[in-house]
Amino acid sequence: MVFDIDMIKGVYAALPGKVEATRKMLGRPLTLAEKILYAHLSAPTSTPFERGKSYVDFAPDRVAMQDATAQMALLQFMTAGRDKVAVPSTVHCDHLIQAKVGAVQDLATANDTNKEVYAFLSSISDKYGIGFWKPGAGIIHQVVLENYAFPGGMMIGTDSHTPNAGGLGMVAIGVGGADAVDVMAGLPWELKMPKLIGVKLTGKMSGWTSAKDIILKVAGILTVKGGTGAIVEYFGEGADSFSATGKATICNMGAEIGATCSLFAYDQKMADYLKLTSRAEVAAAADAVKEHLRPDAEVYTDPAKYYDQVIEINLDELEPYVNGPFTPDLAWPISKFAQAVKENNWPEKLEVALIGSCTNSSYEDISRSASLAQQAIDKGLDMKSEYTITPGSELVRFTIERDGLLNTFSQVGGVVLANACGPCIGQWARHIDDPNRKNSIITSFNRNFAKRNDGLASTHAFVASPEIVTALAIAGDLTFNPLTDTLTNKKGEQVKLDEPKGFELPVKGFAVEDAGYQAPAEDGSGVQVIVSTTSDRLQLLAPFAAWEGTDLKGLKLLIKAKGKCTTDHISMAGPWLKYRGHLDNISNNMLIGAVNAFNDKTDTVKNELTGEYGAVPATMRAYKAAGLGAVVVGDENYGEGSSREHAAMEPRHLGVRAILVKSFARIHETNLKKQGMLGLTFANKEDYDKIQEDDTIDILGLTTFAPGKQLTVELHHKDGSTEQFPVNHTYNEQQIEWFKAGGALNVIRAQAAK
Ligand code: F3S
């Protein structure tokens, strides 16, 4: 058993009391999201939180990490000095496997190329009580759904499609590595109380329509930004009418509308899925508290009273959708798609069709798609496009192989790829004659931004259900509508595809020989974490130094950044991602995308020691070598974008002492605080203009650093003049402790040592 039944039973034991207390406090019936959120507060509250405004501390039940983001998260966790993770956690090796030839060979190549990363992740998981899913075991969200997700639970995961677990009624939220470190180290996890969007589903799907079409339609309605800061809760009799894996598909792609997460209420379909994935015990425990795992009845009758926005979709009328190209919210019902292809001059020829991924590789998806492949064989049709199948997990792969479905795919020329992200995240060595040629592909994945799948700007990527992807692959043409059109078979006859047919769950149950799971050691104290000292991809972290107890004087101005400075400007992605487990190497990208306000150039700043202009990281290294600290000055909303913790760690590592800006993006500001950095804002924004290129800077007032009390910045200009101005900060008592200790993890380490 890989899941933690005692933890789940503990959550359920407390649930009725917590729900009742919340209902009383709010004085009204509750939605499901409210029940789960209030049941997971890190400390009880006597006052309600305001949706979209209040910042709330939560205590999630689980953490899941994928191999790319886990590296820095776990390196940081090591410095917290704990023997074990505070909550059940898992690592999943899925992002680093490139799809090139087929499953077996690609997996062997990945095992070789990423040997040191896998050895590190496996050993550190073993040591600290973390479940480790080896390369080939499957994609994080599918493995979580099959093993760990449970109704009414709360988890965070270091991947944006973590909300997939909402298909089993879990509040599951995608976060950055820094948040995972907090929760694994036993700190509360902060989130702005989400708004609530209710989606009422009536009727029942049939024929060619599948769960994917619900979210493709919702994406068209809400657009890629419409769900921002909100939990999308699906309800109504339509919601109970389809499979748990279909629900997971919808929750997975809630990420494409920016939703915090998406959620379905506990029902018989979830119980069936839990039972068939060896979790009858979880289903029984959930059954015992089932009224608390659904919204209160009043919510169904008057949803507008309880949700900030309500959308209604009648599943009886829902058509299959194809969304794209280049954005997942450009939604076309299949009846309008052919015309859109023609009018927009998108390449009609479909070159590659890809099914599977974490979004759509359930037994239901695969069996329905296989029924179409079988029809192609029976009706004398060829598969006109290249066709690939990415199983979401070894459990699914083994089962569909046993049931002959993989054989059906290979009979029509389908290529089975590794149980991994592969083409979904650009890990795809695509064979194409001319990379500049406009071309079309279609996937059953979730994202279709330019270059996402194959790195080519010329590729027009569309997303649809696996059934529609398979039908279009048979036709080899984007303008084919399988609901109405016929195809010419090898005998020259006109044939029509019948509606896909499949099984929600395997009739013979799931089976697997080796799921790819490695349980951690009972006692990890003797386990050695494997990191080579000569590695350029991994480096153990040394704790950051504590504050020296004095004001900071004689700091150099590293850069006065002008305009937008996102986490991507501060710590670029692309080729640098290779070094995400090596802080010193990745620090060579620090602020190279920021625009210097004094010369409008990127990565060109004045080195005050030599008077020469040079790259930002090299200049900072020169200051550090000379024993000098520095200040980074920035504009509005500094650090917006992803929650990438490297953007806060790199300046800290290279010796920057303070980031002084007009305003911060909140997550980045918090990340800076966690790393023990000073994050300050101009009390008067015009003071930004006072900063001159050759300034030396003092930060005064630190010996009496207190919440709500301004600090003072003193500029020493080159002409000998000085000027002072006040600066604000938002540090609370605890965050001031973090600053003094040199970082939040240093505080935890000190506590753990006691
Ligand atoms: Fe992987 Fe794509 Fe899912 S990158 S986690 S298969 S969204």
From TrEMBL:
Keywords: Iron, Iron-sulfur, Lyase, Metal-binding, Transit peptide, Tricarboxylic acid cycle. Its EC number is 4.2.1.3. Its cofactor is [4Fe-4S] cluster. It catalyses: citrate = D-threo-isocitrate. The keyword Lyase applies. InterPro entries: Acnase/IPM_dHydase_lsu_aba_1/3, Acoase/IPM_deHydtase_lsu_aba, Aconitase/3IPM_dehydase_swvl, Aconitase/IPM_isomerase, Aconitase_4Fe-4S_BS, Aconitase_4Fe-4S_dom, Aconitase_dom2, Aconitase_mito-like. It comes from the Bacteria. Residues 557-684 form the Aconitase A/isopropylmalate dehydratase small subunit swivel domain. Pfam families: Aconitase, Aconitase_C. The keyword rRNA-binding does not apply. Transmembrane segments: none annotated. One of its GO terms (cellular component) is cytosol. Pathway: Carbohydrate metabolism; tricarboxylic acid cycle; isocitrate from oxaloacetate: step 2/2. GO terms for biological process: tricarboxylic acid cycle. One of its GO terms (molecular function) is 4 iron, 4 sulfur cluster binding. PANTHER family: ACONITATE HYDRATASE B, ACONITATE HYDRATASE, MITOCHONDRIAL. This is Aconitate hydratase A. It comes from Chitinophaga eiseniae.
